Amino acid sequence: MRRDGARPAHRRGCRAEPGHALRLSIPAREVILARASVPEISVVNQLPATIQALDPDPSGNVRVTLRVGNAQLLALVTAASAARMRLGPGEPVYALIKALAPVSVAGG
């Protein structure tokens, strides 16, 4: 872990020099939320985050805006999951992202 709290992300096929900034575009549907870090799971990208906002949509899903360090990340969960997890602004969560999730990479 770096001093700024950021962790190196694992992404298959993504090569960058250590310390080089990258901009990642991760589809919200590929982000899984958990209340705590999950040991003994194949998902190695587990990022501590804070919920900034929840935006329900007519289809029964909730778009969750997260703050991860200095970055913003979106997650898409069902309204039932948001209620069951009691998600709310200011709440800490972990954003889980599979290394094989479709991600767009650009220099930062």
From TrEMBL:
The UniProt record lists the keyword Transport: no
Keyword Lipid biosynthesis set for record: no
Keywords per UniProt: Molybdenum
Domain Mop: 40-106
Organism whose genome encodes this protein: Hankyongella ginsenosidimutans
One GO term of the biological process aspect: molybdate ion transport
Identification of the protein by name: Mop domain-containing protein
Family annotation (SUPFAM superfamilies): MOP-like
